[in-house]
Amino acid sequence: MPAPIRLRELIRTIRTARTQAEEREMIQKECAAIRSSFREEDNTYRCRNVAKLLYMHMLGYPAHFGQLECLKLIASQKFTDKRIGYLGAMLLLDERQDVHLLMTNCIKNDLNHSTQYVQGLALCTLGCMGSSEMCRDLAGEVEKLLKTSNSYLRKKAALCAVHVIRKVPELMEMFLPATKNLLSEKNHGVLHTSVVLLTEMCERSPDMLLHFRKLVPQLVRILKNLIMSGYSPEHDVSGISDPFLQVRILRLLRILGRSDDDSSEAMNDILAQVATNTETSKNVGNAILYETVLTIMDIKSESGLRVLAINILGRFLLNNDKNIRYVALTSLLKTVQTDHNAVQRHRSTIVDCLKDLDVSIKRRAMELSFALVNGNNIRGMMKELLYFLDSCDPEFKADCASGVFLAAEKYAPSKRWHIDTIMRVLTTAGSYVRDDSVPNLIQLITNSVEMHAYTVQRLYKALLDDISQQPLVQVSSWCIGEYGDLLVSGQCEEEEPIQVTEDEVLDVLEGLLVSNLSTPVTRGYSLTAIMKLSTRFSSVNRIKKVVSIYGSSIDVELQQRAVEYNALFKKYDHMRSALLERMPIMEKTASNGPTEIVQTNGETEPSVPDTKLPPLITQPANQANDLLDLLGGNDVVPVIQTTLPTKPASAGGELLDLLGDLSLSAIPPMTAYNKNGLKIEFTFERANPNPNIAVITIHATNTTEADMTEFVFQAAVPKTFQLQLLSPSSNIVPALNQGSVTQVIRVLNPQKQQLRMRVKLTYTHKGSPVQDLAEVNNFPPQSWQ
């Protein structure tokens, strides 16, 4: 059989192919030749054939038939064969195929080989694709090589140990003695891989984290030597000494300093040195500075150091590189809650990022701008954000409008400003606003009694200009129906009143009923407005005629309204004026907790808490069915998930929120659920304003080695109770009890009956969905008596 072509010739031939079909034909022809050679057990050219197969694999063609040939090459005594064999194993094999177990013995022999390069090949392969079984069998050899004096092998053994720990965490302690002298190594490659190994061990085990905290001074010393050392051609990148090692050390310091005062104190000085001495003209320096900022923000650092870190991020915002600007905005968004005032200093730069051409940067800048809004800057920030709303792409309008509504509701300096701002949003982006914006604005207008004439005049003008924005049209129709008499009488004091006749108002509303732009909901608003005007205007006959026409409408909702309104005119005309009188001031349901003081521009508006629980809202059908499945009967009330509104950023206010309405009487905690490593504990408080309300805090912990993700806790109680489930602190229950998920349940028990509850738990563990049901009946008597 003639000698097969070399790899170079194959590459050259494939590159001459002009079409995909021609290339495929060449590959198939060569694969056929390679298969024939494998069948004839041709040892001479096996290495060459496997090398060609790997090239075809890189092009995306199947090469699985070469797996066993890789094992034969690994078993060869020639280094060139072993090198291609191990490379093929890393590319063509993985732990899902049982074939990989056949090479365990070969790797074990090569780890004890007399040649360091053969040992290095075995370490690389084990560290790349070793399964948990292989790692258990070969961990002892890896640990021996980790103690060797050969720096070439130590760095490879350290990385292989990282893979072993990831696959078999219980083997971590085996490598602990070998880590003692790793950081005293002078070789940068060994240092780098050692820091990677220590980082992995600290992230996976709280005990290791405590053990390695004593290494902080040594790590600080290494980092200081890197900064202060002169030019070293071996490790220099753009004038900075070994930036890869610096970044790794900073990440390890971040883990070691988290939630530890002593460790944080030990690294404050070196972090300040890195932040002030690192060159920022090159990307390498920016990478180190970014890691430094993350470390400063994560540990218990001094306030001055945190301000320095935020100023570095502020400088990043002025960088020409889009990636650096995006990273800076994302980091500032994470820190804005803890260091609000320091981030505020960069407000103008952040607002300028709203004009960036990059959509990712614009979105981050918009989110950060809303996070910076407070009572002092509300007018200026809203001006910028409304300008952004006018000119931004449609994909931003919904989120921007929603953010403006929330900020205006929280920090509005006056009722008029609040109404003007929301009307501006409705006129520019009305089609993109949330569904609840219409009832919320109606409620705001109703409660602002002194602004009724001004508001109805403004909305009437907006309606004359544009009827395409449906939320705006709906609010305008409602207001004209309620306050049409104020519009016609021209009683507006805030601006020059307009002269409008009753017929002109009715013409506009009738136009909405026949407009192609109007949705069925909008037509319902318009018809109701016309009906309401029958008690405010003198044109009753015209209104009767309009209502009777829609009694035969093809829209069932509109037809039903018209028929009922016709009945009001005929049978119940004596009740019409009472039924259609103005709506009373609407009470807004207050959030849970004590009186909330909203900081506004020069005004303080206390909102009195409503001790009643929010009314239960009908859930979507599938969720309701899930709860029925959970409860197995009709004698229970399903729970409603609610989200608490954002509180003002005030330390004192948060403390009051935390303690204001709870009676910290000694109600013993209880374990409600403990199965498969998931433990749910209940702790209890009693709400002071209403002793019939029990506040239950659930604490979910996880003793297994893997996180429980997509965690959802649902609960239901009998009909004699009312239950409200607030938002959880997270949907991930950390492994090994490294944290917990908390969630607050409020139970109204007016009849002081014994508390019973059914719970449903769903989560994902190790890639598999888990669902379980449980009944909790052993509540302590103090929690419900």
Automatic annotation (TrEMBL):
Keyword annotations of the record: Cytoplasmic vesicle, Golgi apparatus, Membrane, Protein transport, Transport
Membrane topology: Peripheral membrane protein
Compartments in which it is found: Cytoplasmic vesicle membrane; Endomembrane system; Golgi apparatus
Gene Ontology, cellular component aspect: AP-1 adaptor complex
SUPFAM superfamilies: ARM repeat, Clathrin adaptor appendage domain
Protein family membership: Belongs to the adaptor complexes large subunit family.
PANTHER family tied to this protein: ADAPTIN, ALPHA/GAMMA/EPSILON
Name the record gives this protein: AP-1 complex subunit gamma
UniProt source species: Hucho hucho (huchen)
